[in-house]
Amino acid sequence: MFYISEVIKGDSELDCLVSELDAFQRELYPDESNHCLNFSSVSDNKLRCVIARDKYGVPAGCGALLLQEEGFGEVKRVYIRPEYRGRKLGEQIVTSLESLALENTCHQLRLETGIHQQPAIALYRRCGYVVCEAFPPYIADPLSVFMYKNIQLTL
């Protein structure tokens, strides 16, 4: 069992998880294909972050939502520690980010991930995301996969 809570971008546990993600991605991609968001470069009102914890309160994963203009949001920094993978935690994190997006009147979520992260691509497909062309501020990159999902509040 996991529980997900929102945290501020400077949270020390979030920083630790993001550092683990950065190290993982540095092994897979050259610098020019690593499109990591530096949280300090984003204003507090444009970023929503979550941490997933196990039943003992140990951080198991994280994710972030970058709020953009015109009702768009970008899923960023989704990461699950290896020992917690395969337990549907990714789906829970993505669902949590989608709820935050709806609270912030987003109608479409987009994301960029890498071609060497097939489990992540499969996660996003299971969550209803489809492959698309690169979107601003990105340019096409042979090591990137771009995806989107239209979201709406269901009553």
From TrEMBL:
Lineage: Bacteria, Pseudomonadati, Pseudomonadota, Gammaproteobacteria, Enterobacterales
One Pfam family recorded for the sequence: Acetyltransf_1
Highest taxon in the source lineage: Bacteria
SUPFAM superfamilies: Acyl-CoA N-acyltransferases (Nat) (SSF55729)
InterPro entries noted in UniProt: Acyl_CoA_acyltransferase, Bact_Acetyltransf, GNAT_dom
Keyword Cell cycle: no
PROSITE patterns: GNAT
Organism: Serratia rhizosphaerae
Name of the protein in question: GNAT family N-acetyltransferase
Key words of the record: Acyltransferase, Transferase
UniProt domain N-acetyltransferase: residue ranges: 6-152
